[in-house]
Amino acid sequence: MDIKSSFYFFLSLFICIAFIFCLTGFNEKAYSSEKIVFYLEDEPIYTSSNRISPGFLLEVVKEMTKYIGVTPNIEFLPWKRAQLMTINTPNAVIFPLTRSQSREKNYRWLCKILEVPVMFINKEGDAPINTIEQAKDIRGIGVIRGTPQEEFLIKNGVPHITMTGKEIYSKLAANRITAVFTAKPEAIFGWKNGNYKEILQFWPGFQTLPLWIATSKLSDQVNTHKWNEAFIQVIDSGFFDSMQMKYFGSQK
Predict the structure, then answer these.
(1) Domain 37-114+211-248 sits in which CATH superfamily?
(2) The CATH number fitting domain 116-209, selected from 2.40.10.10, 3.40.50.720, 3.40.190.10, 2.60.40.1600
(3) The pTM is what?
(4) Strand pairing of 161-163 and 141-144?
(5) Exposed/middle/buried for 161, CB within 10 Å: 0-12, 13-18, 19+?
(6) Is 113's pLDDT higher than 90?
(7) What residues have CB less than 8 Å from 199, skipping those under 6 apart?
């Protein structure tokens, strides 16, 4: 092999090695930069696709991601499908999710964001709902499907109608349901956001629900410690309190 042939041989070999190295590096980089995905329900109070009012929790969690250094993809799905997708998708995150015994096997829990009281709520002048027995006598109690509130009503034998969080307050305002069983802060915001004129009545609480951020057990890029640190930073910065005031006013 002469000098010229040797030069071209080694040049070709160098190019091949460089190409393989770049391809391998690209694949590793593509894997390491895999995106976190949020599977959320599109509802006005906590997680909304509305850019002007994205919802209390979506604003809080997106602020947290700035401290964590991730940019999530966000997909809005029906609530039950959002839960199923999170369980089966690596590096998927869902919120707000109530932590319950039946869900322990399906999720890794990142951090608790809020605790909310749950009660029967109807319009001023309607019949009181202080007890489960009173609730059983009322027809047309609305509850958001796929929630612990729905499980509570089923367990206690209370007749109810399931629906999405997006429609529950408009149906109450239009008298298509007579009461709702939901969290007080959610009802305050939902009623205010709908500009409904009648006054709501809040009866004694039957549940206190802790709302969590959770992730798939298949997640290898979601660091629980980092998420908790980010939540503390969001609280310390005053952002969390400002979002509570924005969405719920003085009611917490």
Answers:
(1) Periplasmic binding protein-like II (3.40.190.10)
(2) 3.40.190.10
(3) 0.71
(4) parallel
(5) middle
(6) yes
(7) 123, 124
